[in-house]
Specification:
Strand content of chain B: 15-25%
Structural class of chain A: alpha+beta
Mean pLDDT of chain B: 89
Number of domains of chain B: 2
Helix content of chain B: 55-70%
Number of helices of chain B: 17
Order of helices and strands of chain A: HHEHEEHEEHEEHEHEHEHHHHEHEHH
Number of helices of chain A: 15
Strand order of the largest sheet of chain A: 2-3-8-5-7-6
Mean pLDDT of chain A: 88
Distance between the termini of chain A: 34 Å
Oligomer: heterodimer
Shape of chain B: elongated
Shape of chain A: elongated
Largest sheet of chain A: 6 strands, mixed, barrel
Number of domains of chain A: 2
Strand order of the largest sheet of chain B: 2-3-8-5-7-6
Structural class of chain B: alpha+beta
Chain lengths: 411, 409
């Protein structure tokens, strides 16, 4: 049995190179196809990954806790029904990667020249460093130093629009729970930059304690944000958080808060599979064609083998093995080529010419391709399995030849 | 039928399975290309039209620099006379002036930062779909009255209904404090989340008083009858503007750069995918034609020895490819066109279309539309690359020596 297999393998390998031009052309097609599958997948996955990581760092976190009405109506009246101390007592020892409490409400920020609507974030900077989209050390000026910091940190782009700069004063207006206007002057102590430019215009950061005093909410907050290990697998964190809080609040996963991105993740995973299959189908015509030709050229010799006593299954095996060898060789080279072209690009592809378009899709202007092991496995498996089935038909046909007819056939 | 044509046709069917498989590869790619290209361009058109119709318009007259900075004091002076002059000179109603400011809108219970627009109630309905989308109450009808129309989401967030009052606080053009109390007379539902959440419209006359605009505004929206006429109309409008006021005309791709770039980014990734498909088909053709030439070495040797020029044989091979390519093109365009047209009538949806549609102003059911361009551009490229691929086997014939070729099996 092993011996037969060895002979068949050797026969198949030698047959493959009898018509080296045809094999090389087909090999070229397989290599290009496999390369395109993996390359495109890496670009797509890279883009989705960037989008999701950017978005999660702006939410931030994988799981959030709010008042049941807050997500629909992000207002200061929809506070969590728990004082901060009680939250801290429960979350402190739960072993999350990072967690924080914060106030997130709409506000208007005015300089002496311009006003803009913004989202005010009252945060404890130390707690959020691990999950924020702001790189604290890259902030021009300084980032907030603690929850009672009296300064405000705004985005570079917002500073430009408001025509303000470091050290200048701006006025922040929002409402307190009784809908009295709450306003206060802040000194701009830091300017942050973000991968997604819209964040620079949307978010402003102030100390949580300062904001609580301004909005007259005591020690209450609007959100608890929790970071887990992996954005694709948030269920453990979700379960743990749900167990920690009371019934009167809503616990949400990131894909429920940002439904667009949650959908994108699913759609893109599906797209990758469709793309791999489409490329394979385009390849399969050539593959079957090559095998049909190979069989056609060898009718007489296949007949002779059958006449000499080779079993039809031997013929079948020989041709399937020949096809698989072609595919495996193509896959190997294609994988290497994909790896070789993606590696140098991993430091990022600059696509800032379409930056605002990417921003509209929710992506940053630098694309980091992501070569994921499971995508490579997916592409290779699809090619091998479907390739196997595609080669069955010509191989089956060859194994059914009548020896006498085949030997006497004239090409 | 001409002799050469008949010869090529018969050669094609010496190996029917091979010919069908190669044609099949072409048809497969062509069907896919026709469908994808139709879908893509149908989607782009909808994205552009829906985004522009709602509010932005085809083009806007603005102060130089306003489009980049959106600053309150980058104004168009005497904007109402300018708009009416444009209306009469262009002989079109689709011209309307606007001014805009950020303000804190407060109801009894809630306060939100919003973008307030001062609009001309008479002409705004000609350039924006918002007036027609007022679901409760009515649109503005006077140029001075303290009235305001807001989006549905904003109304919900502010907890106001038609008839309630809103207080707007902001700063005027000169930086001074501006405040007004206005009655909500209408609530619109545009379906574009951004507009429904952040926009309020009030009469331009009132706006100019409250925000100390002294007759100025920020944008004159001008619509062309069709998207294709924007460039031409932009030229005309630019020529009609008063000189020395630093006014410029911005067309939609400057107003919404994200839209055009999102389309460009999508096109470039699509082009990559199409290119891979076309190349794979080309390889298939190359393989087939090379095999068919190599098989016929013996026979080519004989006809060469009989005095046929190698160039003619090369042309014969190209002709065979062209025939195969034509079959692929016709069948592909036919099947692709039929499938796409059927889906165009039925409409179809993809998983996730709701969320993506909301992001790009698309309906959740798509109707790809087949045009001559979307039907033929993809298949034509496939045809061209197939011909290109068979150039190598065709040229190989020139290297044949009749005697050696006749000796080969």
């Amino acid at each position: 049995m092993i011996n037969t297999l060895r002979i068949l393998t050797m026969l198949a390998w030698r047959n493959l190179w009898r018509n080296h031009r045809r094999t090389l052309i087909m090999l070229g097609a397989v290599v290009i196809g496999v390369w395109a599958m993996i390359f495109m997948t890496a670009l797509t996955m890279g883009m989705v990954n960037d989008m999701i990581e950017d978005s999660i760092s702006a939410l931030p976190g994988h799981v959030q806790v709010h008042h049941p009405d807050y997500l629909d109506d992000p207002n200061i009246t929809n506070l969590l029904p728990l004082p901060e101390e009680a939250i801290a007592d429960r979350f402190r020892s739960a072993g999350f990667l990072a967690w924080a409490t914060r106030i997130k409400v709409p506000a208007v920020l005015s300089s002496e020249r311009e006003s803009r609507g913004v989202t005010l974030l009252g945060i404890d900077p130390q707690r959020e460093e691990a999950m924020s989209f702001v790189d604290y050390s890259a902030v021009e000026g300084r980032f907030l130093e603690g929850p009672d910091d009296a300064g405000i940190v705004i985005g570079r782009k917002l500073a430009e629009t408001l025509e303000t700069e470091l050290g200048k004063r701006v006025v922040l207006m929002s409402q307190d729970p009784d809908n009295d206007i709450a306003d206060r002057g802040f000194r701009v102590v830091g300017l942050f930059s973000a991968d997604v430019q819209a964040y620079e215009e949307q978010y402003v950061f102030a100390g949580k304690k300062t904001v609580q005093d301004l909005l007259r909410v005591g020690d209450r907050v609007t959100s608890i944000v929790v970071l887990g290990d992996d954005y694709r697998d948030v269920e453990p964190v979700f379960a743990k958080v749900s167990a920690l809080v009371d019934d009167g609040v809503t616990v949400s996963r990131w894909m429920e808060i940002d439904t667009y991105l949650g959908t994108m993740l699913r759609v893109m995973d599906g797209f990758v599979l469709v793309w791999v299959i489409v490329i394979f189908l385009a390849l399969s015509f050539g593959l079957v064609n090559t095998l049909v030709m190979a069989v056609f050229e060898r009718v007489r010799e296949i007949g002779l083998m059958l006449a000499l006593g080779m079993k039809p299954s031997g013929i079948l095996g020989q041709i399937v093995i020949e096809s698989m060898m072609l595919l495996v060789t193509g896959l190997t080279i294609g994988n290497l080529l994909a790896w070789a072209t993606i590696k140098p690009l991993e430091s990022g592809i600059d696509i800032s010419v379409v930056a605002e378009g990417m921003a509209m899709m929710g992506a940053a202007s630098v694309l980091y391709p992501q070569l994921r092991f499971e995508d490579v496995i997916l592409a290779n498996t699809v090619v091998l399995i479907l390739g196997f089935f595609a080669s069955l038909s010509p191989a089956w046909r060859a194994s059914r030849f009548q020896p006498i007819e085949a030997i006497t056939r004239v090409n | 039928m001409n002799l050469v044509l008949r010869l090529a046709w018969r050669n094609l069917w010496r190996q029917p399975r091979r010919t069908w498989l190669t044609t099949g590869a072409m048809v497969f790619s062509n069907v896919l290309l026709v469908f994808m290209i139709s879908l893509q361009f149908g989607m782009y058109r909808l994205m552009i039209e829906n985004s522009l119709q709602a509010f932005t318009g085809h083009m806007q007259v603005q102060a130089q620099g306003y489009n980049d900075d959106k600053k309150m004091r980058q104004t168009v002076p005497d904007i109402v006379p300018l708009a009416s002059a444009l209306r009469s000179q262009l002989d079109s109603d689709e011209v309307a002036a606007r001014a805009t400011a950020f303000a804190l809108a407060s109801s009894e219970e809630r306060s939100y930062g919003i973008a307030v627009f001062g609009v001309e109630p008479r002409f705004e309905p000609h350039v924006s779909s918002i007036p027609g989308l007022v679901r409760e109450g009515r649109y503005l009808d006077s140029n001075e009255a303290p009235e305001i129309v807001i989006g549905k989401v904003l109304a919900r967030n502010l907890r106001v209904q038609v008839g309630d009052e809103l207080t707007l606080l902001g700063s005027g053009r000169d930086g001074s404090f501006a405040a007004v109390v206005a009655t909500v007379v209408g609530i619109f539902d545009s379906g574009v989340a951004d507009l429904d959440r952040t926009i309020a419209e009030m009469p331009l006359g009132l706006f100019q008083d409250v925000f100390y605009m002294r007759g100025s505004g920020h944008q004159v929206v001008v619509n062309a009858p069709r998207l294709g006429q924007v460039a031409e109309l932009k030229q005309r409008v630019a020529g009609l503007l008063p000189e020395d006021q630093g006014l410029v005309v911005q067309d939609w791709d400057a107003l919404l750069p994200g839209l055009k770039q999102a389309i460009q980014a999508d096109i470039s990734s699509a082009v990559f995918m199409y290119a891979v498909l076309v190349i794979l088909v080309a390889f298939s053709v190359l393989n087939t034609q090379l095999m068919s030439v190599l098989e016929r070495t013996h026979e080519f040797g004989i006809v060469l020895a009989l005095g046929l020029k190698p160039g003619r044989l090369g042309r014969l091979v190209m002709l065979e490819t062209a025939m195969m390519g034509t079959m692929g093109l016709l069948l592909g365009a036919l099947i692709g066109g039929a499938v796409t047209a059927w889906l165009g009538i039925q409409g179809f949806t993809m998983p996730g279309m709701d969320e993506m549609g909301a992001k790009f102003n698309l309906p959740s059911r798509l109707h790809p539309d087949v045009t001559i361009a979307s039907l033929l551009s993809g298949p034509a490229v496939v045809f061209l690359f197939s011909l290109l691929a068979s150039a190598y086997p065709a040229l190989r014939i020139r290297r044949l020596h009749p005697v050696e070729a006749m000796r080969s099996a």
